[in-house]
Amino acid sequence: MIDAIKPDVETAELTEQEIRTFSFDHRQSTLLHYFAEALAAIGGPQAPGAKSKASLAATELKRSFSKDQCELLGAYSDGLVCVLIFEGLQKITDVSPPNELPDLTSLENRYDVLCLAARNQILLKLVDNSAFAYDMDNEGKLVRLVANFKGGGLIKINAEPEINELSSHSGLALGPHTEAPYWCAVSAKDGHSPSPSSLILSALWNPSLEPTRVIPLPPILEKIGVTHCLALTTDSFQFTRSDSFVSGKGEDGRNVSILEFDDKVGFAARFNSYRFSVNDNVSTFVKTAYTALCLGVGEATPIEYTLTQESAMAINNIRALHCRDVIKDNRRVLVRIFGLSKFSSPLVISEDPLLLQG
Length: 358
Ligand SMILES: [Fe+2]
Prior knowledge:
Bound molecules: fe (ii) ion
Radius of gyration: 19 Å
CATH topology: Double-stranded beta-helix
Order of helices and strands: EHEHHHEHHEEEEEHHEEEEEHEEEEEE
Low-confidence stretches: none
Strand content: 15-25%
Shape: globular
CATH class: Alpha Beta
Distance between the termini: 35 Å
């Protein structure tokens, strides 16, 4: 179910290598389901002990994988792939969504949500990513439900506010972005942990089959060329604070780069089409490069994937942008977790559950 909206011949091949699918066979998905249920039973990813349980489950699962399957996981783990889609997963529940979603807390505590979150945590571990949360984001919780709780969707919710938050808790369309924070991408800097290495998404409900869109960055960077890419490595950009941050925490940022060279993964990116801008006082070279990037992103062909309970999508957050349209069906609920790769060096506040200083 991978669809390119308007195939661009030049970049199609590059894009294809960046989007990979890992298919579970029946026996493997049964085993994964068993481990996910066991993890949900202790409270899911937020519970102390979930981290090591997910790790053990991943080790056990890997024993059942073929050489090709292990190679695919290795490629993502090494940071060489933009997206890894997991297919052939077991359905978690047959319960249909209610017409109006219940409040966030009661949704978060549902057993099926904990199962999906636990499964995501194990899938992340298969690619050597550890589930974590930031202290200043999503109330410090590892699991985030992506749904229209705060209005802005095509159809109004019961308590539609006048101003809609620009975050995954609203129904608004979200332009191409990587996940915040945007201070650095791989190694901690000036008291800030790097941005998430990965995000993984699955769907509890997606009744109208609304897709998630991903834009791999390598073809865009190829297209804009070396001089522009170099200009994007300068600390010439600023960003506005994210609406998902804990009230009073997190802040606007100045003098950050969009691209950086990294010894372990090659390049790493941070960008948000609705939060970033270029500093006023920079050279024309930098301003032109920024315009070229924005144009390249705007012209790129996103890959569309429709998440269900039977699939999950890990997005390499330093190599790909993601975006979505306005939410059309307010019953849509995705379950998201951030992952920290083996290359990332963050500022750790607590180990279990893993909490980082944002
Ligand atoms: Fe996002």
